[in-house]
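Troubleshooting: if your tokenizer reports a length mismatch, compare against these two reference records.
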Amino acid sequence: QAPAASRAALAALGLLLHAWDARGHPATAKRPNFVVMFADDMGFGDMSCNGHPTISTPSLDRMAAEGMRFTQWYSGFHVCSPSRASMLTGRLPVRSGCAGRSWTGGVFANIAKGGLPSNETTFANILRDQGYATLAVGKWHLGHQPQFLPTSHGFDEYLGIPYSVDMGHSAWESSLRHKLQVALPLMHNTTVIEQPVDLNTLEPRYVQKVSDFVRANAQAAKPFMVYLAWSHVHVPDFVAPPFCNRSLRGRFGDAVEEMDSHIGEVMSVLKESGVDDNTLVFFTSDNGPWLIQRLAGGSSGPFFEGKSTTWEGGVRVP
């Protein structure tokens, strides 16, 4: 049985696709596009619409005001890899072997040999079989060997970092807790194209890739699906220079506000391309805030605890 959150998302996707087919339209009929945005370690209390006093999130606030809010949304797990496996497959992460080695869970390290098994079905697999163009951008964290990367799980193209931004050396992170001390890689499909990645320009490049993809498919009248897994707001709270010292919440607040600004850019591109009224945009976080990082982590708002726990703050997310 799938977690309620992921099960609901896949059920909604299935109903939408069925509704289009059930009307008897030809295969070329206009079908809905999908943009799934996944924040990293963002807590329930990290948005201004949820009451944060010193972080401004106008783009997310607008989505909340104009769209549908799931105020009792629960992630599939309380840490990264299992939660992402659950989101992509709609299954409990233990079913796919992605729950971790202990009862507290775990994630795929930068020395991992395994990943999301090839026999798992993701929503990208389903949509590509229906003729959709599929793109994955950002953090993957479900195995970095070629057979486990997004291009082996239903995505036509991938641009991103295969694991967390603190799992490799960068200008923002030099003291690593992980076993393999390597420079943080940026990958395109299965090839490393930059190492170490320039985190100052990373998220704008994510937005550019998504924008180009949306415009191209809108012009071609081809239905598309984007899985945009932001590297924000995981430590080390990197930000582009225009967002430095912008928030009263410090570096963490700067990172949240940069992500929010880029979300606004993606929404603008959908509108400019004429597909905003036919695109379902969904935003959530993989798990609650990493509270042991103190000011470098986020807030679970009114809920107890955060990431790595099964208390409300660990799994109840925006």
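Reference record two:
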Amino acid sequence: LDTRHDGQPSERWSWILWFRDSDTCDDNSNEWYHQCAVEGNPTCMYLHATREPKTESVVRWNRKASDAGHAQASVKLAYAYLKLLPSHLNFDRDAAEALFQSAIDSSNEPDGHYGLASLYLENMKQNIQLQPGTSPTGTQTMFKIIHHLEEAAKSGHVFAMFNLGMCYTYGYHRKDGLRDYELAVKWFEASGLPEGMAAKALYLEQIRNITGAEEYRQKALILGFGTFWRKTARERTGSGGSSGANLNLPWPPLPTGEMPPEW
């Protein structure tokens, strides 16, 4: 809710409890999932990986979990192959693509869809750089990218929602490049991200809705937009599923040279 019952701005309060399984407050969290991980529980393998101190062990347990069908482990392993998460693995785009697809096949994992959309956009961007003047709008590849973003958004993936806003803002969804700003701002607002609120504020400013623009600008600021910590926090937490996910997808340039800015 934006306001309380008395009309004042609403506030959010969080109550965080920390538990330690020791009378002397020793940290034994590295033991919590070890036994069930050894016994072959995929979720335990995935959680145990988060407690391992060495990247080799983190990768090993995520691989075990991925092989056992854990979708989020597959996503993390994919980002490790892309060098977006710390790992000793060699860069391997094909392995990452297969792991994102595996995450989709096993449980329709939204971060799997988002990861594939990112890879396909990167491919398209590289191809356009090799063939200047080529338009990325309304192509079969772009429709496939939009499909993956929509599938991720259906499962609440806020980064995908924000990028669908970018898609409609720049007309990537149509062969003629016609833009749909009204649909774009709906996706920006649906994301709930400070960047989404700021993007809607820019749109409202463009159509001379100064009051609305200021309202959404304030929402963005309250959520941390423009602060020194926001980008770092976003990169560390990712979409909530994996910290390797990047809000700024590699959208290719339009024939005019335009493309979405980095946020």
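Descriptive notes for reference record two:
- Residues 43 and 240 are 17 Å apart (CA to CA).
- The chain has a mean pLDDT of 91.
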